[in-house]
Amino acid sequence: MEYDAVINKLIILYVMEQMEMPLTENSVIEITTVKNNWINYMDCLDLLYQLSEAKLIYKAACKEGEMNYALTLEGRDCLTFFYKRIPSSLRDEISQYCKTNRLAIKQSQEYYANYTDADDGSYLVTMRIYESLINSPLFEIKIKAPTRQSAEESCKKWRQQAPNIYENIYDKLVNTD
Question: Above 70 in pLDDT, residue 120?
Answer without folding.
Answer: yes
